Amino acid sequence: MAKFNETFFYHQPKHLNEISAAAHQVVSENETIFIGLKGAFKEYLICTENNLYIIKKGFMTGHLFGDNTFKMPYRNITNVEVSFGFGGGYFEVSAGGIQNTDKIFWSTDKKSDPAKQPNTISLTASHKAIFIEASNLILEKISEINTPSSTLLQEESVADEIRKFKELLDDGIITQEEFDAKKKELLGL
């Protein structure tokens, strides 16, 4: 089961159980969730330290039976955007290979309905502020990951951590299974 970060950002207490249930269906147990939000319909934004997930369920999202999960590593994301017009808006993830199109909250056309797009979440006016704040957090995360010195330091720190655990293994303080599990976690596997 995935863990929630101690600074978990959700600001929607009445939807916490629903968000948590959606997250635990798709997020692996070695990931830590730091953002969990619900859109206008059964649309959820879940962010871990490595990936962004958009989960869609229900009739309004085009999934009468079943659901859809859009998963994108931060290193592939080029932008996140919150856009509002008359009566509603949307949160959208941009990346190479994703063709973004104009969206209209009240559209019945699948191509322009944000509820039907895998990389988009429909929003009402009450969602605007929290999704803008979430967008800013996601953009910070993307910036951290895409900064070369940060990536190099992160790789060095992971290697150093693995070395420390290898020493613990060699000293007989931890088992091979514990070492392998920690190594997988540190490498994000």
What does this molecule look like?
The chain has helices at residues 16-26, 128-146, 148-170, 176-187; strands spanning 3-9, 32-38, 43-48, 51-58, 63-73, 77-85, 88-95, 120-123. 34% of the residues lie in helices and 32% in strands. The strands form two sheets. It has a five-stranded mixed sheet, with helices on both faces. It has a three-stranded antiparallel sheet with strand order 6-7-8, covered by helices on one side. It has four helices and eight strands. It is of the alpha+beta class and 189 residues long. The protein folds into two domains: 3-146, Roll (PH-domain like); 148-187. 29% of the residues are buried.
Identify the notable features of this structure and list them briefly.
189 residues; alpha+beta; PH-domain like; 2 domains; 4 helices; elongated; SHOCT; SHOCT domain-containing protein
